[in-house]
Amino acid sequence: MEENKQVYRLQGLSCTNCAAKFEENIRNIKTVEDVQLNFGAAKLTVHGVASVDQLEAAGAFDGIKVQPEWSNEPERWKKGETITTFISLLFTIVGYVFYFKMGESHPITIGAFLTAILVGGLSLFKVGLNNLMKFEFDMKTLMTIAIIGAAIIGEWAEGAVVVFLFALSEALESYSMNKARQSIKSLMNIAPKKATIRHGSQTMEIDVEDVQIGDILIIKPGQKIAMDGEVVKGQSSVNQAAITGESIPVHKASGDEVYAGTINEEGSLEVRVTKRVADTTIAKIIHLVEEAQAERAPSQQFVDKFAKYYTPAILFLSFLVVVIPPLFFGGEWSNWIYSGLAVLVVGCPCALVVSTPVAIVTAIGNAARNGVLIKGGIHLEEAGHIDVVAFDKTGTLTKGKPEVTDIIPLADKDEADLIRIAAAIEEYSQHPLASAIKRKAIRLQAVDYKAENFLSYTGKGAKATVQGTEYFIGNPALFSEMLPIHAELLERTSQLQAEGKTVVLLGTAQEVIGIIGVADQIRSVSRSIIQKLHQLGMKRTIMLTGDNRLTGEAIGSSLGLTEVKTELLPEDKLTVISRLKDRYGRVAMVGDGINDAPALASANVGIAMGGAGTDVALETADIALMADDLEKLPYMISLSRKTLTIIKQNIIFALALKVLALLLVIPGWLTLWIAIFADMGATLIVVLNSMRLMKKDL
């Protein structure tokens, strides 16, 4: 099936009902095996064989255009439906001129209004009459019945106004959906289509599709980086805002990772390509955002179910308005037929159906532009209901890179001697604490000792011979097995642990000669992020860590967390998340997406850090913060909450305007043009309200 898979972009797709009908029409093509239509991203995936002409024929009822890739739509004033709308308006104005001069029944007046109806409503009538013959009652069917009915009872003027206003509302809806889809288009335009590569002593410009893994990219100052890769030569500041949302450029040097679509600001770089164009981070972001926009959020599922029953109910109500007053209360048939037609118009579910998807599409697109990848409407809505945020410690609240904070000599050695001996032994170890000690020795220029006879004690430390003396390095448990730990040493050790530091002792079999304090450095933004979460009304902020109780509580206290869970294994974190859900409600788990995968999956919302650098984070989490920091977390929660608020407002606006207009039936005040204004007004309010989610700052 993959061999016969074609992906297309669609123009003119602005209505969810039309999208469903278009998808069904394609499915009925005999040579098509399967089809997926992504309304939010205006993307069509066809499995099987179907020509563009066949696909466009399937969408001819709504003027849908099918293209191999996204291209710019023609200027709005040049589009066919816009031209016919304005011609319809012109004839409507002419009709009203003759209406006031010669009367409503004059042939010229009727002719002008009829021309306006036919020009502006021809495409509408084609679909509406076709649906009517099939007993399919969608928005266009209701409008067709109403306009034909208005003409039959002699309401030519109102029929013309209704046609014009309906065409105008369709244009506004199309415009709004295109604006909402701009996020995908802008993402697609981020990465260059060409790349400059070096082959031997020659450089050449080729299409990014032809670049191979291992090729060397040449990137000059001011150029965009064309592919994901690793810097092999040069150093520069790279603006990664398009991928991670970071406003400050990041320094890149040999060995650092760079991403397609980011901008090289200063120096020249040579980059070895590590991913093909289809596998770059920006390509994955585009794919995941499109999939997210296609997924139906819970509120959208509710609206879609509601609309299924709503349209038949409106038809039945319209029938009752037409027959009950004349049959039982002596009403004029023409008046109540007119009112029934107005009920049909006001009952169009357009605003209700578009109330959720336009908000979801806009919000997910906004988040992607700001370095937050939300993988579906359901996760966007869940994030808006979060009561508790649980954090992994290492690499999330902290930098994940321990540093030496204290060097305390206890014998006749000075700090430089202690770090020289410790670094010599740790040269043979790959433990994170060993790396911290080695980095400290390099900074102090104390790396001139060599160790021999190295032996590791798993989970405790190591020993080796340095300068002819056998030294041990490790945790207090290692030394307590060899010699008594005196009170002063215990006090110093406990004090460091209370400050959130890990204690490493250095000594011989006879005495401890020094204490080294090592701590994972807390991110500078962590405390302010926790404060912002509390300001947003979080019930609890909790840190989950494998550290000992003293270290964990020291860090938790300095950050202002409400609770700390210490000495946890990965499976313990899973248990804690389950208990938090039972006790407090919806829980979000924030981690690095690798060793936290079970907890991320168990939480109501799994949020991974540093999605730009790790495929695991993009795959396991519901939401990925593309930059390796927490600064986007409060923004994401605020965006989710605002989206929920706007969806609720949209549904209320859509229904309230309908109910208000329908109540005008009782005193007989509901006219066709008021009905279409109510429908168009509701759609316009919903669309403009959703567009507020496009703003960067919420």
SSE diagram, text form:
Blueprint: E1 5-11, H1 16-27, E2 32-38, E3 43-48, H2 52-58, E4 65-67, H3 80-102, H4 107-133, H5 139-152, H6 156-180, H7 182-188, E5 194-199, E6 202-207, E7 216-219, E8 229-233, E9 236-239, H8 241-244, E10 250-252, E11 257-258, E12 263-264, E13 269-273, H9 281-294, H10 298-329, H11 333-346, H12 350-354, H13 357-369, E14 372-374, H14 377-383, E15 388-392, H15 393-397, E16 398-409, H16 415-426, H17 432-443, E17 451-457, E18 461-466, E19 469-474, H18 476-480, H19 487-498, E20 502-507, E21 512-522, H20 526-535, E22 540-544, H21 549-559, E23 563-565, H22 570-584, E24 587-591, H23 597-602, E25 605-609, H24 615-620, E26 623-625, H25 632-663, H26 672-691
Parallel strand pairs: 15-22, 15-24, 22-23, 24-25, 25-26
Antiparallel strand pairs: 1-3, 1-4, 2-3, 5-6, 5-7, 7-13, 8-11, 8-13, 9-10, 9-12, 14-26, 16-21, 17-18, 18-19, 19-20, 20-21
Write a concise synopsis of the structure shown.
It is a multi-pass membrane protein. This protein has 698 residues and is an alpha+beta fold.
Largest sheet: 7 strands, mixed
Class by alpha and beta content: alpha+beta
Low-confidence stretches: 74-78
How are strands sequenced across the largest beta sheet? Answer: 14-26-25-24-15-22-23
Radius of gyration: 34 Å
The helix count comes to 26
What is the average of the pLDDT values? 83
Distance between the termini: 44 Å
Give a count of the beta strands, DSSP E runs of length 2 or more: 26
Percent of residues in helices: 40-55%
Taken as a percent bin, the fraction of beta residues is: 15-25%
Shape: elongated
Family: Belongs to the cation transport ATPase (P-type) (TC 3.A.3) family. Type IB subfamily.
EC number: 7.2.2.21
Catalytic activity: Cd(2+)(in) + ATP + H2O = Cd(2+)(out) + ADP + phosphate + H(+)
Subcellular location: Cell membrane; Membrane
